[in-house]
């Protein structure tokens, strides 16, 4: 598929944090960057003259922009680092390949130490991160040490060595920073419980720790130890303001491929994330055109085989949103909760962003394809035999039974066709009767279209529930159009879609384009009908009062309202002012009507 022009790619970027990648005409990577707002950052490259010659040269070479959406600016920074190391783009020379970010290590040992490191050693230790800076790591470790007393020595605290009294208490114990496990003054169980709590803190679960801090603060305050209470309060403030979004994903997730799919009537969009040491090193989304109405599962299975082959992936485990069959050698995981579930949701979010981007580009460069897709989707959602290229929607308007009117609005190819809108005065119905009024206007509308040989719609929508729908169906029956035009009703309260002779309503997805178009039709019909009704009611009220004056006719009323603009001004006008508009004789009649008796 031909790539959209750069201006189209720029217009359709999301206002979300993420990482962007620039490619030249040969598909070679030029640059990887991060952004708090992808659209603003990327657009800025093309909206100004650059002082740097290097940036100017790069911008001239850009032919394609790709991006990966992430949850936060921090995630974008870490993802940028991983991609630069992996892709080694030509214009990222300022970032050295050996740059690494710190982790928090929970050492694989008895009475584990907790410390920061830039090196990941495969010795069974737990690593959390990477973090954006040592400042963040030190803040967390300071909080942890303030709450849980941990050892900092590098002794081998084997059970037999402690029993034999090999170690002696050090200064950290006497300062109150350690509980002395080296002399068996702290049990292994208590220490490991603290380690479990620390795991929760570095994952971002601060609930238990916050509660303990609050208890400590309260205890200090009760003991009149206000400086200590303030110190604890400061830590609570830091904890509450700190959001643990410094990991791209769980560091335990290593050498895993993640796939997800979103689909519409004509296309499937499959996103692929490749994970290594808990970080995303690749993201790619492909668009697949459906040929035989393939299911989501079929599309995903085809895409997994294609993408893994294309990127020479040797991961032996994949995460997917539902079970797939892609060979016996792969471990298939369908996460239900936790970090694994979140990474599948991140993949789905990237697929959805890609799909939205393609829709926006479609509207700009290929509006016909966009309309075709929407019409095909409406046909499927509403269970129609034809695409609803021409839709007409009816709405009744009567307030307190007065001046009953109706409106018909027309949409063609999903857009309003205002020149085809029609207004109806209810002629055959006495009093407020929505059902009879609906039957009358539907009958009159399509009798006229038939008599004049005009095009009939593929879909009729009546604003109301089963009663109004039945009235519309009866009118079509009388005209011999039953079965030739699809007709549905939409109830206001729960957005229920009713079908003739079907007691069970259809509920559409609240975010679906089909429901949005139906709501737009209904709202437009209501607006158009209310405006007509209001104008008619106002005109009738004015005309009735003025025309009731003996000797005053319709022509005089029109002249008066045209000049004075309102009935109130007519009543307040002097006889001389009235005479200048309608002559002395009629002016005297109106003035005397309002100012005598």
Structure description:
- Its main location: cytoplasm.
- This is UvrABC system protein C.
- The protein has 5 domains: 6-87, GIY-YIG endonuclease (3-Layer(aba) Sandwich), CATH 3.40.1440; 103-244, no CATH class; 256-363, no CATH class; 382-537, UvrC, RNAse H endonuclease domain (Nucleotidyltransferase, domain 5); 545-596, DNA polymerase, domain 1.
- Helix 9 (207-222) runs antiparallel to helix 10 (226-241).
- 46% of the residues lie in helices and 19% in strands.
- The strands form 4 sheets. Strands 12, 13, 14, 15, 16, 17, 18 and 19 form an 8-stranded mixed sheet that branches.
- It is an alpha+beta fold and 597 residues long.
- The protein has 20 helices and 19 strands.
Task: Give a quick precis of the structure.
This protein is of the alpha+beta class.
Task: Specify the CATH homologous superfamily of the largest domain.
Answer: UvrC, RNAse H endonuclease domain
Q: Beta-strand level of the residues, as a percent range?
A: 15-25%
Quickly count the domains: 5
CATH architecture of the largest domain: 2-Layer Sandwich
Which descriptor suits the 3D outline? elongated
For the sheet with most strands, the description reads:
8 strands, mixed
Name of the CATH class of the largest domain: Alpha Beta
> Helicity, in percent?
40-55%
Structural class by sheet pairing and helices? alpha+beta
